[in-house]
Amino acid sequence: MIHLSDAGATMQKICTDHGEFISMVERDVNFYLQCMKANAPTIYAGYFIDVTEKCNLVCKYCYFPVNNKKKDRSIDSIVQDAFLHRSMAPFILTGGEPTLRSDLPEIIEKLKPIGPVELLTNGTGLCEDLLEKILPVLSINLSIHDEIFEDNLRVLKLFEDRKIKLESVLFVIDDVNEIDELINLCDGWKHVICSTRIKAATKVWNEQKPKEKIFVSDIAKYLTETYDAEPVWWRNNKVSFFNLELNGIIHMPVSWYDRFNIDMLDINCAPYYQAKTGETMNFLTSMLINEGIDKGWLNGHRCSYNNAA
Question: Which of 9, 49, 70, 263 has the fewest other C-beta atoms within 10 Å?
Answer without folding.
Answer: 70
